[in-house]
Design brief:
70% helix; mainly alpha
């Protein structure tokens, strides 16, 4: 028995086992995808292009985590550039660009999500380690960040490759199933790769075979059959590496920074109390130690804000998608048979996909609000642009024209005053 065998029959008519017709819901989800990607494309393109430009041109390369930020912005920008093709397909229901382009665009979605998760983990761990081990931060070299980034790209690219292997470019009844609402979930259970789609059945072919046409793409792509054991194994493996372990790393980094910050505040309180008990003023060495302690605590607070922001971004964008997988798996295998729960899980799935795509617009805000050097260069460029627009060449006087104007004013004959009459 395969994952897709279970849902043959009623599902092909867009009806759930509870007897509910999902056609209207699937059509509304399709519109939601179209409008959502339209809203995300323009701000996502502007924000990520600006962030990538500032990070590459104006931020010092020895700034903490700047290499990881550049890679994160690059992953978001690549996905943003593929959104017009998705918008075109959801709006016209036609894919004229070929199966290769379709598979590549679909693959970029997964690559963006898991690369973003990996680089958020790298940013959090690096900030934590550099605070707890200052000597390691001094000995750290930029090439280490480059090697880590290359490793992340290679591992994530290979980890997302099952998406291509599980999609069939030539639909045939012996190897694929109908790319409908429930069948799209069976792919996500097996590979944890489907980050977009899975909302409604594919349009039937003109020959009446019930299979997707050759123009289908994204959520309507035909899928290969997989055994249940292999599907569950791949799903659990992807959940651990894509959600559980990254979230544990970010949470533990936050805990270590909070504990170190509390310990530093306790030491400062003891130091200030000991100084206040003395009758003579503190020495210069004690004052320098106090200043150094305050500076360290300020650095820890900035690092804590960075790690907590990564945690919040992870929880808002990626946690709903991965948590829903667990319930989706139980629904597909018949473990959860309650009708209301089953419908709620299926209807929440497209919303979780949209939240995952929202990270492309939220990541640039992470660079702006948590990196003072980023804000400084961006504000400088904005102010210089405004100043240059106010002093455009059409409004400025050249030095030669200014001198000629002054000479004309000096040679001008003024009318005599009334006293000279």
């Amino acid at each position: 028995m395969t994952v897709t065998d279970k849902w043959a029959g009623p599902v092909a008519n867009s009806s759930s086992p509870c007897g509910h017709n999902l056609t209207n819901w699937e059509q509304s989800i399709e519109k939601m995808y179209t409008y959502f990607y339209l809203l995300v494309f323009i701000p996502g393109l502007l924000l990520n292009a600006t962030a990538l430009w500032v990070l590459c041109r104006h931020i010092r390369k020895n700034t903490k985590a700047v290499i990881f930020m550049i890679n994160l912005a690059l992953a978001d920008l690549v996905h943003i550039l593929s959104l017009p093709l998705r918008i075109y397909y959801y709006f016209t229901h036609v894919w004229p660009f070929g199966q290769g382009v379709c598979l590549f665009c679909f693959y970029l979605k997964y690559l963006n999500m898991y690369a973003a998760i990996a680089f958020l983990v790298c940013i959090s761990i690096q900030r934590c380690v550099f605070l707890l081990r200052p000597f390691a931060a001094r000995q750290w070299r930029r090439r280490y960040d480059l090697l880590i980034s290359i490793t992340v790209w290679v591992v994530v690219s290979l980890g997302c490759s099952p998406f291509i292997l599980m999609r069939s470019s030539s639909p045939s009844p012996s190897s694929v199933t109908q790319a409908d609402y429930n069948m799209s979930f069976s792919l996500e259970v097996t590979s944890n790769q489907q980050l977009i789609g899975s909302a409604h059945p594919a349009s039937p072919s003109p020959h009446g075979s019930g299979l997707p046409t050759q123009f289908s793409c994204f959520k309507d792509l035909p899928m290969r059959r997989l055994p249940v054991s292999l599907a569950v194994t791949m799903m659990v493996f992807a959940e651990l590496l894509g959600f559980v372990i990254p979230f544990a790393c970010i949470s533990y980094s936050s805990f270590l920074i909070v504990r170190s910050l509390k310990q530093g505040q306790t030491c400062d309180e003891h130091r200030s109390s000991s100084i206040s008990r003395r009758s003579r003023p503190p020495s210069l060495s004690i004052q320098s130690d106090s200043f150094r302690g305050k500076q360290t605590n300020a650095e820890k607070q900035r690092a804590l804000k960075m790690v907590l922001s990564c945690s919040a971004l992870f929880l808002v964008c990626f946690a709903p998608y991965h948590i829903n997988f667990l319930f989706y798996l139980m629904v597909s295998q018949g473990v959860v048979s309650h009708c209301a729960t089953e419908l709620a899980v299926r209807r929440f799935h497209p919303l979780s996909l949209c939240l995952a795509s929202l990270s492309c617009c939220l990541n640039p805000l992470l660079y702006y609000f948590l990196n003072a050097e980023f804000r400084l260069h961006l504000s400088r460029r904005a102010s210089s642009s405004v100043f240059s627009s106010l002093n455009s060449p059409t409004q400025r006087l050249s030095p030669r024209r200014l001198l000629s104007t002054e000479s004309n004013c000096s040679d001008r004959q003024w009318p005599p005053s009334p006293t000279e009459d």
